[in-house]
Amino acid sequence: MFFRKRTNHNRELFKLIVLVVTFLIGLLLIFNQQIQDVFISSTSYYETQKLGKSTSHVSPSFKFTNVKKISPSTLGIGLLKERTNVVGVISIPKIKLKLPIYEGLNNTNLLSGAGTMRPKQKMGKGNYALAGHHMTNPHILFSPLQNIKVGNTIYLISKSKKVYSYRVTQKKIISKYQINYIKNVSKKRIITLITCASGKPEESRRIMVRGILNQGKGR
Question: Where are the bilayer-spanning segments (predicted)?
């Protein structure tokens, strides 16, 4: 009799555990996107405050193929991995974009900011090319670039707090294979911003935004 009661109790306990686990999985699926967006937003803000203070020893990578779309698994890995140094901040007030700039492209960097696309880039010189993720949430990372307009101002802030101002001169949709846009252009001091044309996982098109340095210098 005791054994039967014990067995029934175990069955009820097992059913309860299954019910709770199923409920938690359901909640996770429902709120997964919201959790992801909150994590990205808060990390972007925190990393922006580290300008001039970060002392990372991670070597930068510039291999585009190593960058994966953001998912729960890449977010989890991002929590554990160290980022490269914050080398600046990009701010575009008209579209409410403000993000840390990291040296190089890797999954961890792009979870919270923009990454330089070529080695040894310098603000205010040559073609300062940056890449960032386009998310389904239109307000985080490089998603707001879909709303940028010719004539808007892009600000870059260096580690020494020097500000470089660029005026947007071009915005167009390009193929992901058109990497010529990130190369230096003879005698021009410009900025190029690249992101996916949408937040769809298999998006092959890119938004390309280009601006020219105002007055030929930072301030």
Answer: 12-31
